[in-house]
Specification:
single chain; globular; mainly alpha
Length: 221
């Protein structure tokens, strides 16, 4: 809350959910009435976009917060406390993960554009939480200051495009998307009863998380 921009970003997912709910209630019926075009078969992509952006925004907040604390030597001071470097990292990433999980579940029930079993709702919210951690670690690990972090955050947001590659019907692009976490959020929403998808999603997400944590420890050691 010390930084007004980060404070706004923390509450931004709530505004995002509200805006898209209004779009569902007002804009989509208007388009249907005016053009006869029914977008309802693709509305699940709207849910995917919102839940993914919640993770991305809170991940950016976390990354910038850790950069700010690194610049102020706060992270170094905390590393010599009983909390330790690992406890510090866990504390900061938990902030993003729990907040994102809450917004993920909230977005499902507020938007109400797709019907999923509760296990799928919780799982995609968990994937979104992990995505926020990935974004935070990417920014913190590869950006030296807030200015570079802002530029890097814009580039990282391009990862979200992998959630929508099926719309292009390009086989090579879909195969490439298998290696990126956003793709699996869409896949679970599309096939919530196909549990092999859950396992593959976990493998990819844990793989990314493991690589980034390894990079963090090598950089900080």
């Amino acid at each position: 809350m010390r930084d007004p921009i980060m404070a706004v970003l923390f509450f931004a997912p709530l505004f995002l959910i509200i805006v898209f709910k209004l779009m569902v209630l007002l804009l989509i019926p208007f388009l249907l009435a005016r053009t006869g075009f029914d977008v309802s078969p693709w509305l699940f992509y709207l849910f995917v976009f919102v839940i993914m952006m919640c993770g991305a925004m809170l991940g950016i907040v976390t990354g910038f917060m850790m950069i700010d604390e690194r610049d102020g030597n706060i992270s170094e001071l905390m590393s010599v406390t009983p909390l330790g470097r690992g406890g510090y990292l866990f504390n900061r990433l938990l902030f993003a993960a729990v907040s994102t999980f809450f917004y993920g579940v909230l977005s499902y029930y507020v938007l109400d554009v797709v019907e999923l079993p509760i296990i799928a709702v919780l799982f995609v919210s968990l994937l979104s939480s992990n995505y926020s951690i990935i974004i935070g670690l990417l920014i913190f690990s590869f950006a030296d200051d807030k200015v570079k972090g802002l530029t890097f955050a814009k580039a990282i947001n391009a990862l979200s495009l992998f959630a929508f590659t099926d719309l292009l019907s390009l086989r090579w692009l879909t195969v490439l998307s298998w290696f990126f976490p956003p793709y699996w959020i869409t896949t679970v929403v599309q096939d919530p009863h196909f549990f092999l998808v859950y396992g593959l999603a976990l493998v990819v997400n844990i793989g990314w998380l493991g690589l980034l944590l390894r990079h963090y420890w090598k950089k900080e050691s």
